[in-house]
Amino acid sequence: xxxxxxxxxxxxxxxxxxxxxxxxxxxxxxxxxxxxxxxxxxxxxxxxxxxxxxxxxxxxxxxxxxxxxxxxxxxxxxxxxxxxxxxxxxxxxxxxxxxxxxxxxxxxxxx
Amino acid sequence: xxxxxxxxxxxxxxxxxxxxxxxxxxxxxxxxxxxxxxxxxxxxxxxxxxxxxxxxxxxxxxxxxxxxxxxxxxxxxxxxxxxxxxxxxxxxxxxxxxxxxxxxxxxxxxxxx
Lengths: 111, 113
What we know:
Largest sheet of chain B: 6 strands, mixed
Number of strands of chain A: 11
Low-confidence stretches of chain A: none
Structural class of chain B: mainly beta
Mean pLDDT of chain B: 93
Structural class of chain A: mainly beta
Low-confidence stretches of chain B: none
Helix content of chain A: under 10%
Number of helices of chain B: 0
Helix content of chain B: under 10%
Distance between the termini of chain B: 40 Å
Largest sheet of chain A: 7 strands, mixed
Strand content of chain B: over 45%
Oligomer: heterodimer
Shape of chain A: globular
Distance between the termini of chain A: 34 Å
């Protein structure tokens, strides 16, 4: 019974394509997040979302958009993929803004 | 701009010794502090959280927080080879709402058998 799950685990695609990464949590948490870990292993917040607000890191291009069909899911849509989007993307969840638990990650490779 | 600073290492510690990891943060409004462990190719795993000044102990791990000095540390007692990993210090600014973690770049810890 995985707490935070993501699909797919690996995603290889070409520049210009549109792709989505799915995230689900079964912890009953009310807040979900997307993080990007670049090739230098630096982990950076992209979005945080609960049922009241969406907080977007100002450095995230508007080609990236989170979509939440319900409290247990926060999907990440990426349009017009670029080489620089290659990274590992982690989903996380928390209750309020306390301890965050991470999913296994999705390694995105753009060719 | 919120920043979290860590020595990138590598920090090499003999097995059985105490490993000491340090972190400083720039935003005085920060209220929640976390230590994550990340093995190569894996996701960050929460090992400690601390919210008030002082020490918090959990098994072989002790987190220390000094808000006046804007300093957080993690001590690992009786270090084991399995503790070899990258340790990430993370900070949340607000006390509520959907606020993400600001991470340091991590300290690579190596426990020598």
